[in-house]
Design a protein that fits this description.
Layout (H helix, E strand, L loop, with lengths): L18 E8 L10 E8 L4 E4 L7 E9 L5 E12 L4 E6 L18 E3 L3 E7 L5 E4 L9 E4 L2 E8 L8 E6 L20 E4 L2 E8 L8 E6 H7 L2 H11 L9 E3 L7 H23 L11 E4 L7 H5 L16 E2 L3 H6 L5 E5 L6 H14 L7 E6 L9 H12 L13 H7 L3 E6 L6 H12 L5 E5 L1 H11 L8 E4 L4 H11 L14 H9 L4 H9 L3 H14 L22 H16 L19 H18 L20 H31 L4 H33 L7 E3 L9 H32 L10 H24 L1 E3 L8 H35 L1 H27 L1 H15 L7 H10 L3 E4 L2 E4 L2 H13 L25 E2 L2 E2 L1
Parallel strand pairs: 7-16, 19-22, 19-23, 20-21, 21-22
Antiparallel strand pairs: 1-2, 1-4, 2-3, 3-6, 4-5, 5-6, 8-11, 8-13, 9-10, 11-12, 12-15, 13-14, 14-15, 17-18, 17-23, 24-25, 26-27, 28-29
Helix pairs in contact: 3-6, 7-8, 9-10, 13-15, 14-15, 15-16, 16-25, 17-18, 17-22, 17-23, 18-19, 18-22, 19-20, 20-21, 21-22, 22-23
Length: 965
């Protein structure tokens, strides 16, 4: 049987190019008479199969399948009946090889099936007798030939007609004439697929003349389940992708409205599909075609098959294993065949576990089944089982899909509601990346849930965790990814590599290696290469390295045949290390994949610049891990957090001091010039002193608060936006708490400033006489105290969850936090300025109120607001550490986000929601250990064809304690 194919990027649903005219000949009768010729219609449901009516191909001795190519004529190929059932009146034909087979598209989108529960619009494309014409036909030289053209029938259907027979009645536009009362004008339409809303709902079976010319009868998809045995349904599932039971068919028309949970699940499915479709395109997964990755049943420590199959205890007999082997494109089918809806995917490093997870997610979303949960990939490396799996997944969902942070009607967030209602299928990727002492706890925590899930891991790490925990993952069988088949590897490398000028596929640079692998597979060099190129990761790296080499100068050119040299590469590990070391120079040797979209002024980076920066990022992730935990998520708000706590506090405090000090210094100068008789020199001296003192005070306060906050945990970005909404009043309790905090902050800040001005500044002989009496001082304290309370309270009241209508990218979250700081600056100005201006205007007159209000509003915005934003927010920490300190010390580039995006375009990094990750753990581990061990290699050129490391900045060697000072 032929398995349903992998999805293609074409739209799902009815495609007229896949309609087929079925030409049948039968053998002569027992009396020696001539055989019968008949015509029908059909639809190409997979790359290799056509669905039609069983009576069309009854007793067929020859079947031809004719595809219409529009103005290009027709393509005709032989067909063979491989499955049929008379009761259901459906048959499956296999498209056989032939001279014209290559003219058909090699891949087609999967068909989605539905059941009709009400009146719906429908359509079918077939080749009825009334479309028989005579004249010049496309593809024929003769001036006049008979031919049947296609007919696109459109109308409505209802499940309430033909209730006794259980068929669909199609109400269509009738043919204009019935020239032969003995034959139906619809003859030849039998076998045409009937569609509604992009789903296949039936197959045309007959025309009852008594119903009129405008009515056809079609077999219903949902009736197939009653007419066929379970094993037949399973066979159709393998052949054409039919769901295993009728309840999984999409319902048409859909229920009116649906629940708010349905809407949230649809939105999440849309965001996930867009996110990973773009990442799949960027990773060139299908270029030039997907590598053939296969899997098989895993043996080892898994649950017994009775639990996997959900067999009742009363059965009394053990359940046999499920056949779970197959190619990657069958992963959805294999997962659906597991009754427990739990699966463990095992594979060595680079074997394709993440690609399998990506394929599972996209294939399920491109051919959804009603009621199925939405598959979402979660990177397990960032989970600490001290936090419940539910809470951790909720945080990941809100981080990557911020629209799910809005409140649900039942309380809590939409993310929480989707998880509680099991509308999310967790694809838990990278179990082996958790700290070893946490894996057993994690396994028990997963077993405490009843959710469907898929878990990926390296085999040895999973086996150790099961043995240590003393439990298996309940209800989950296992599959293991196989090494690439040498024949598939040879086909892929020949197709993926450019041939020599004027040559064919056998003239690529890989041909000497492939010949050696075929001729001497046990040779030492060939065995090393075969072992390394047994995983999709290493094949992809090798392709990148040696495609780049084709464009280098002759003296630097390297060729794949060098990998066979056992003197240079005596082991498989040496070959692997060489490919990892050569990957960065090769990735930066060509323009990034998205270079056409880059601004012309944007300057790129080369490997010599990028290598030490990427090495720092890899070591940063290495230091974030605690107790053996492997961290893969490269989050912008965590960059620099592995520096010493004192270093981070100094950088953040200094930035806050500059923001507040410069603002107050500049703000004092015009006040002294306008409101006093002192000259410009005095105003400048006093402004400088006030700026320094206020800056030191603000830097000390904000630095201390940052030091305290960072000791309690990492500062995370807030996914909120400024918005006046109807639900703002519901946040009044939170606003009240924030207002009380602002009250304290305002009182402490104003008192500190009064003391500095009256004691220190006056003691230096720079009193400008503006301080006034004690009453004025108390009024000043009251103004800032009330202003602080108002600003903090309004901030909480006017902030709503961030909504983007899509999955969040790293830059999206960064920009949202930057905008949040800017909104606070405006709020500080709009609250403090008018408040102080009104009080001062009532006391000293309107002119004085306008002057003081304007100055205080600007100082509040660019002083207090900016200092707060720089010192106590994730964006401020990012600016202080990642945008200033780390570039200043040479660890990272000045244009960091542009650099990360460039690395993403070059496939050095990948994007997972709001964070980046290295393309693969092996690349990260190589940069973590490799660059540290090779810092003494200098900046010399290449040695042979092996890429040499690049020197690090001296500051990168000061690794002490928990960070880099």
């Amino acid at each position: 049987m032929t398995a349903a194919p992998e999805p293609s990027p074409e739209p799902l649903g009815f495609d007229p190019r896949r309609a087929v005219q079925v030409l049948v000949e039968t053998d002569g009768g027992p009396d020696g008479g001539p055989g019968e010729r008949r015509r029908g219609s059909g639809y190409r449901v997979t790359a290799d199969t056509v669905l039609t009516a069983a009576h069309v191909v009854r007793d067929a001795s020859s079947v031809r399948l004719r595809f219409a190519d529009g103005a290009l004529g027709t393509t005709e190929v032989p067909g063979t009946r491989v499955w049929s059932d008379t009761a259901a009146d459906i048959a499956v034909l296999r498209i056989e090889p032939g001279p014209d087979r290559d003219r058909l598209p090699p891949r087609v989108t999967p068909v989605r099936f539905a059941r009709v529960t009400g009146v719906v619009e429908c359509e079918a494309l077939g080749f009825p007798r009334f479309k028989l014409h005579r004249g010049p036909a496309p593809g024929h030289d003769r001036p006049s030939v008979p031919y049947r053209d296609s007919h696109h029938a459109r109308g409505t259907t209802s499940p309430f007609s033909n209730l006794r027979r259980g068929t669909l009645e199609l109400a269509l536009r009738a043919p204009e004439y019935d020239t032969d009362g003995r034959r139906s004008p619809w003859e030849g339409m039998s076998g045409a697929a009937v569609w509604s809303a992009g789903r296949l709902i039936g197959v045309v079976s007959e025309h009852h003349r008594s119903d009129g010319l405008g009515t056809l009868t079609a077999g219903r998809v949902d009736r197939w389940y009653a007419l066929l045995a379970p094993e037949q349904v399973g066979e159709l599932g393998e052949l054409i992708g039919l769901p295993p039971d009728a309840e999984r068919l999409i319902r048409l028309p859909p229920p009116p409205g649906g629940s708010w949970l349905d809407a949230a699940a649809r939105d999440l499915a849309s965001w996930v599909e867009r996110q990973w479709s773009e990442e799949e395109r960027r990773r060139s997964v299908h270029d030039p075609f997907p590598m053939r990755v296969c899997f098989r049943n895993a043996t080892g420590r898994f649950d017994n098959w009775s639990n996997v199959r959900r067999t009742p205890p009363s059965s009394g007999t053990p359940s046999p294993p499920l056949p779970l082997a197959g190619p990657l494109e069958r992963i959805v089918e294999v997962y659906r065949s597991v009754p427990s809806r739990r699966l463990v995917v095992l594979g060595e490093a680079g074997a394709g576990k993440t690609i399998l997870a990506l394929r599972l997610v996209l294939d399920r979303l491109r051919a959804p089944v009603p009621g199925d949960p939405v598959p979402v990939i979660f990177s397990l490396g960032s989970w600490d089982p001290a936090e419940s799996l539910h809470d951790w997944m909720r945080g990941q969902l809100v981080r990557d899909y911020p629209d799910l942070n809005v409140p649900s009607p039942e309380g809590g967030s939409l993310a929480d509601a989707l998880l509680r209602s099991h509308r999310v299928l967790p694809v838990l990727d990278g179990f082996d990346e958790m700290a070893e002492d946490l894996r057993g706890t994690a396994l028990r925590a997963v077993n405490a849930t009843v959710t469907d899930l898929v878990l990926t891991s390296r085999p040895e790490e999973y086996d150790r965790a099961v043995r240590a925990a003393g439990v298996v993952l309940r209800g989950a069988p296992g599959i293991v990814l196989d090494p690439l088949d040498p024949r598939d590897l040879a086909t892929y490398l020949r197709r993926a590599s450019p041939p020599a000028p004027g040559g064919d596929e056998s003239s690529t640079a890989w041909e000497p290696v492939l010949r050696e692998l075929a001729r001497r597979p046990r040779g030492e060099g060939a065995e090393n290469v075969a072992r390394v190129l047994g995983t999709p990761l290493m094949v992809a790296l090798a392709r990148t390295v040696y495609q780049s080499a084709n464009g280098r100068s002759p003296e630097d050119r390297s060729v794949p045949e060098d990998l066979l040299d056992v003197r240079r590469f005596p082991t498989a590990r040496a070959v692997e290390d060489h490919l990892l070391a050569a990957f960065l120079p090769a990735a930066y040797d060509a323009p990034p994949a998205g270079a056409h979209a880059v601004q012309p002024r944007r300057r790129g980076w080369d490997a010599e610049q990028a290598a030490p920066w990427l090495g720092y990022l890899a070591r940063h992730l290495d230091r974030l891990g605690q107790g053996g935990q492997v961290v893969r998520d490269l989050a912008w708000w965590e960059l620099g957090t592995t520096l010493r706590r004192s270093t981070r506090t100094f950088a953040v405090g200094a930035l806050a001091a500059v923001a507040f000090g410069v603002t107050t210094a500049v703000g004092n100068i015009p006040v002294d010039l306008v409101a006093t008789a002192f000259p410009l020199g005095f105003a400048l001296r006093r402004g400088a002193v006030v700026g320094v003192l206020h800056g030191l005070a603000a830097g000390s306060v904000f630095g201390f608060i940052y030091w305290w906050m960072s000791g309690r945990g990492r500062i995370k970005p807030l996914q909120v936006r400024a918005r006046i909404s109807r639900g703002a009043w519901k946040r009044r309790d939170e606003a009240l708490r924030s207002a009380l905090a602002g009250l304290v902050v305002g009182a402490v800040a104003s008192t500190t400033l009064i003391l500095l001005d009256r004691v220190v500044v006056s003691g230096l002989g720079l009193d400008d006489g503006q301080g006034g009496s004690r009453t004025a001082a108390l009024v000043f304290v009251a103004e800032l105290t009330a202003g602080g309370a108002l600003v903090f309270g309004l901030t909480a009241l006017l902030e709503a969850p961030l909504q983007s209508g899509s999955a969040t990218r790293p830059t999206d979250l960064l920009n949202a936090n930057r905008r949040r700081v800017a909104h606070r600056l405006v709020l500080w100005a709009l609250v403090i300025g008018p408040l102080v201006g009104v009080v001062e205007g009532l006391w000293h007159g309107p002119l004085r109120g306008l002057q003081v209000g304007t100055v205080f509003g600007l100082e509040a915005a660019f002083g207090a607001g900016l200092a707060y934003g720089c010192g106590l927010t994730a964006w401020g920490q990012w600016v202080a550490l990642a945008r200033i300190w780390l570039p200043l010390t040479g660890r990272l580039p000045w244009r960091l986000m542009a650099f990360l995006d460039d690395a993403h375009q070059r496939e050095v990094l990948r994007q997972a929601g709001a964070v980046y990750q290295f393309r693969h753990a092996s690349v990260q581990e190589h940069l973590t250990g490799g660059l540290r061990d090779r810092t003494t290699a200098g900046s010399g050129g290449t040695s042979g064809n092996r890429a040499e490391p690049h020197p690090r900045h001296p500051s990168q060697d000061k690794d002490t304690g928990t960070g880099v000072s």
